[in-house]
């Protein structure tokens, strides 16, 4: 029986990718062995996983990670790269909804965000793009701290990565001076060959002036077309949970608790004229549940994300006095900047039909038998079509400077190494507006990654179980509408090239056909009607200079006007990188861990 039981367990691990958690992982705060910790990390997502691993490297410090969601280990959709969007609109998703967006013709859109260990690194697309050198150099300028510059952060970037560029389609070795091979996080070019791969790479020769080949878009200069790495290893998703936190869960100084909702932070004293925030109030995820408190002896670190962290700060009395007093919340630190400068990259999907005999990923979406066969193959050895993750190539371009509104507007990008828009490719029908049951498609997604529009996060209730009011102000500035317009036109130039139309792309699909025929105004109108989010919220608790009044955090990520409290997540970005936010969050968190260690008593 002993042998049989272990054989069954091994079979489960191999067939599903499930890895049972042992050690200090708890389902309830009542099970914790300690009633206080040196560090309490609120949020077990992307940044929280990094901090939990790094801060417990000092065996003398006890660390608690509190996660509102569950353990995703037995959820196969969190492991299979192709199943990323199957996590959306489930209990593993916060399912945030924006307020009505004037720039989107009054539409509200959903911002999907991970509500489980690993956070969004466990559920969204696995894109691994850092942004340009100018992005991080601007962080250094804004904060007055050279430690946030590209050159200073490059060692942290490499420290993260267990990088492998072993995809047979990739002829360029990306493991170079810009990447690391000994870090925790598995990163590679996904191993599935898409029909579009050779067409897109050939287009970098045919259209070299507009889409020059860039051998590494994460080298500091992202401009051009290049391979897009993903957080995938051995055919499965790698996340901050699977590759940072879970491997060290047996450390005796690390406790992780799930299914626990932090309701607010509590002042535990004063230090001079500043309030000390080392108390964490929590409950289960049921609004009627009792509230309890646990304290940190050194620091509380908010890593709840760019939407939840400002909400928790405001519920704790840190925010705009006028907002808080109107909700009956005592203002402890009056800072109107909390929740401001919030933004997210808007995106538009240009869909093209392709030849019917081309085996795009649509065949696994439309044919249940083929999907079942692919799933069976993945369960056996983690190979086959389901290892396909996010976009395999990306292109980064800058707007023309000789046409409106770009010839009269201030450039919102960080600098010339950064794009204004990004093109990403999906060998399938990928639209949130409509669905299809047949056909073969290529979707070219335009992301406005250096946008001019900023919004805010605020609260309309004193209840921590009511969602915050989320306003990214999508396309609030005409500059961003025009950026999407230029990206759509660039997509059409690419899609109509000989490289792409040679036994592959056939024609534009749906409303795009008429918009392209009618010109710029029609494209802009369609962008307002159909654009949505890239799920990259950021900037709502941004860093600025020490003593500054235009942010929430100092350059060491400490909350202005407080003691014992920091924020480490995408809300801290002083300027949104021209890239997907996943890699910048890991980078931020790695340096944050060293900053926290440097202040340890």
pLDDT < 50 runs, ≥5 residues: 1-23
**Shape by Cα distribution:** globular
Mean pLDDT: 93
- What's the number of extended β-strand segments? 26
Q: What radius of gyration results from the CA coordinates?
A: 23 Å
Number of helices: 15
Helix percent reads 25-40%
Strand content: 15-25%
Question: Main sheet?
Answer: 8 strands, mixed
Protein name: Alcohol oxidase
Organism: Vararia minispora EC-137
Describe it for me?
This is Alcohol oxidase. This protein is globular. A hairpin with an 8-residue loop joins strand 13 and strand 14 (292-302). The chain is an alpha/beta fold and 601 residues long. 26% of the residues lie in helices and 20% in strands.
Layout of secondary structure:
Elements: H1 2-16, E1 25-26, E2 36-42, H2 46-55, E3 63-66, E4 96-97, E5 110-111, H3 133-143, H4 150-160, E6 161-164, E7 185-188, H5 196-206, E8 224-227, E9 232-233, E10 236-237, H6 240-245, E11 254-257, E12 261-271, E13 274-283, E14 292-302, H7 305-315, E15 318-319, H8 321-326, E16 333-334, E17 340-342, E18 346-354, H9 362-366, H10 368-381, E19 393-397, E20 421-426, E21 441-448, E22 455-458, E23 469-471, H11 478-495, H12 498-501, E24 505-508, H13 511-518, H14 520-530, E25 532-533, E26 565-567, H15 582-598
Helix pairs in contact: 2-15, 4-15, 11-14, 13-14
Protein name: Alcohol oxidase
Organism: Vararia minispora EC-137
């Amino acid at each position: 029986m002993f042998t049989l039981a272990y054989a069954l367990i091994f079979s489960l691990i191999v067939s599903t990718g499930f890895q049972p958690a042992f050690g200090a992982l708890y389902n309830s705060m009542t099970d914790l062995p300690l009633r206080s910790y040196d560090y309490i990390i609120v949020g077990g997502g992307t940044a929280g996983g990094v901090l939990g691993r790094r801060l417990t490297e000092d065996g003398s410090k006890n660390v608690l990670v509190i996660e509102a969601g569950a353990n995703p280990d037995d959820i196969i959709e969190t492991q299979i790269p192709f199943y990323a969007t199957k996590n959306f609109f489930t209990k593993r998703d916060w399912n945030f909804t924006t307020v009505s967006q004037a720039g989107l013709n009054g539409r509200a859109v959903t911002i999907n965000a991970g509500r489980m260990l690993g956070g969004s690194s466990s559920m969204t697309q696995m894109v691994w793009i850092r942004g340009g050198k100018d992005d991080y150099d601007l962080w250094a300028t804004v904060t007055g701290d050279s430690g946030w510059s590209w050159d200073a952060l490059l060692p942290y970037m490499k420290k993260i990565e267990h990088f492998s560029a072993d995809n047979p389609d990739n002829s360029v070795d990306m493991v170079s001076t810009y990447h690391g091979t000994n870090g925790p996080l598995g990163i590679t070019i996904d191993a599935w060959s898409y029909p579009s791969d050779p067409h897109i790479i050939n287009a970098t020769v045919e259209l070299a002036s507009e889409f020059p080949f860039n051998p590494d878009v994460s080298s500091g200069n992202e401009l051009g077309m290049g391979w897009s790495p993903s957080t995938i290893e051995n055919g499965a998703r790698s996340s901050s949970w699977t590759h940072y936190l879970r491997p060290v869960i047996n450390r005796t100084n690390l406790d992780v608790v799930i299914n626990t909702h932090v309701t607010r932070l509590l002042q535990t004293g004063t230090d001079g004229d500043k309030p000390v925030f080392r108390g964490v109030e929590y409950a289960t995820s049921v609004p009627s549940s009792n509230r309890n408190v646990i304290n940190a002896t050194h620091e509380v670190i908010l890593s709840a994300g760019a939407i939840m962290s400002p909400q928790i700060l405001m519920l704790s009395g840190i925010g705009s006095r006028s907002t808080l007093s109107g909700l009956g919340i005592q203002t402890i630190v009056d800072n109107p900047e909390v929740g401001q400068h919030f933004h997210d990259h808007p995106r538009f999907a240009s869909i093209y039909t392709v030849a019917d005999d081309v085996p795009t990923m649509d065949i696994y979406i439309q044919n249940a038998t083929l999907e079942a066969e692919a799933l069976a193959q993945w369960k056996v050895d983690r190979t086959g079509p389901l290892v396909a993750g996010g976009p395999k190539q990306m292109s980064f371009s800058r707007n023309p400077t000789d046409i409106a509104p770009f010839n009269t507007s201030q450039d919102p990008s960080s600098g010339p190494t950064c794009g204004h828009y990004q093109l990403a490719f999906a060998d399938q029908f990928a639209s949130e507006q409509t669905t299809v049951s047949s056909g073969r498609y290529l979707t070219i997604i335009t992301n406005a990654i250096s946008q001019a529009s900023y919004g805010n996060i605020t609260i309309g209730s004193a209840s921590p179980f009511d969602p915050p009011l989320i306003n990214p102000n999508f396309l609030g500035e005409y500059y961003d509408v025009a950026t999407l317009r230029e990206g759509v036109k660039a997509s059409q130039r690419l899609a109509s090239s000989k490289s792409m139309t040679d036994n592959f792309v056939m024609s534009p699909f749906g409303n795009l056909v008429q918009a392209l025929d009618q010109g710029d105004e029609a494209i802009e109108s369609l962008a307002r009607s159909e654009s949505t989010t890239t799920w990259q919220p950021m900037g709502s608790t941004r860093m600025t200079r020490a003593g500054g009044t235009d942010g929430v955090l100092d350059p060491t990520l400490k909350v202005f006007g407080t003691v014992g409290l920091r924020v480490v997540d995408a809300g801290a970005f002083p300027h949104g990188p021209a890239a997907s936010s996943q890699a910048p969050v890991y980078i931020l968190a790695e340096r944050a861990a060293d900053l926290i260690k440097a202040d340890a008593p």
